[in-house]
Design a protein that fits this description.
globular, alpha/beta, five-stranded mixed beta sheet, Beta-carbonic Anhydrase, Chain A, 2 domains, binds cobalt (II) ion, single chain, 10 helices
Length: about 210
């Protein structure tokens, strides 16, 4: 286990190495933020996006919470989406779930009244919607499939949101995709979900 003192020392070493390798790095970073994507992922400590896709600092605008949920009644989610699209003009939105997700696993059992239970009710609703399919699988299969269905539902929540729809309507480039990360092998997989226009989304999901 690292101490805070060790973390601060590591930070000093990191900043000094960057300056040695690229003297203008922090000047450039301080001038402008121009990320290539908005990442909506799980808070799980094993699924940090910078490591997974190996992009330099400044590339990813990040929102993470337990279970990678885009909750349309959560001001935090909405503010992140609005800022990403209206101010930063981020061209890609990635919803990334992961296998082995504790939040998804907890959603397979009954709820309670604690904040985490209430938050995860949003995944329990997805479970209920797909119960027929999910109950045919063994526990591990159910856990994995619900993680995928959760990503699908969150992509749907984003595309249905007015902030994204308005951006598409004014011709802004916004590509929304759903990925799943396997903590067992470190690989990301696309879930066949990709929408780059209102028309494309409506053709698939518009009636839901
Ligand atoms: Co998780």
């Amino acid at each position: 286990m690292h101490t805070i003192k060790q973390m601060l020392a590591a930070n000093q070493a990191w900043a000094e190495k960057i300056i040695r390798d690229d003297p203008d790095y922090f000047d450039r970073a301080a001038r402008i933020q121009k990320p290539e994507l908005l990442w909506i992922g799980c808070s799980d400590s094993r699924v940090g996006p910078d490591q997974l896709i190996n992009l330099p600092t400044g590339s990813i605008f990040v929102h993470r919470n337990i279970g990678n949920i885009f909750a349309t009644n959560d001001l935090n989610c909405l503010a992140v989406l609005e800022y990403a699209l209206d101010e930063l003009k981020v061209p890609n939105i990635v919803v990334c779930g992961h296998y082995g997700c504790g939040g998804v696993h907890a959603s397979l059992s009954h709820s309670g009244i604690q904040p985490v239970d209430l938050w995860l009710d949003q995944i329990r609703f997805i479970y209920q919607r797909h119960q027929k399919e999910l109950d045919k699988l063994d526990e591990n299969g159910r856990w994995k499939r619900l993680a995928e269905l959760n990503v699908e539902a969150q992509v749907h929540n984003i595309c249905r949101n007015t902030i994204v729809r308005e951006a598409w309507k004014r011709g802004q480039k916004v590509n929304v995709i759903g990925l799943i990360y396997d903590i067992h092998d470190g690989k990301l997989k696309q879930l066949g979900l990709e929408f780059d226009s209102l028309k494309a989304w409506e053709a698939c999901y518009g009636d839901k």
